[in-house]
Amino acid sequence: MSEKAQIKVNDNGPYRVKGNVEMVDADGNVFETRKTFSLCRCGQSSNKPFCDGTHRKVDFESEPRAE
User: Fold this and answer.
1) Has residue 11 been placed in a domain?
2) Residue pLDDT, tens place only, 32-55
3) Is 66 left (phi over 0), alpha (psi -120 to 50) or beta?
4) How far is CA 51 from the centre of its chain?
5) How many folded domains does the chain comprise?
6) Is residue 64, in this structure, part of any structural domain at all?
7) What pLDDT is stored for residue 60 in this prediction?
8) Start and end of every Iron-binding zinc finger CDGSH type domain (predicted)?
9) How many CB atoms lie within 10 A of CB 64?
10) Is residue 46 a part of any domain in this protein?
11) Which of 7, 32, 45, 57 could form a disulfide with 40 if both were Cys (CB 3.0 to 4.6 A apart)?
12) Cβ(19)–Cβ(3) under 8 Å?
């Protein structure tokens, strides 16, 4: 049985994706990923859709909570 996938919304940072996930672009091309990777939420990464840590430099703020 494969590990259940999880997406964690980090405060003031990226989405952390963990588990057996296949990520594809709009054309169906598969991105090369690891078992755990981070996706940009600030929109400023030079490695989109992946996070490169730029959110720390641009004072990105977002702390959503599930209801």
Assistant:
1) yes
2) 999 999 999 999 999 999 999 999
3) beta
4) 6
5) 1
6) no
7) 96
8) 12-61
9) 8
10) yes
11) 45
12) yes
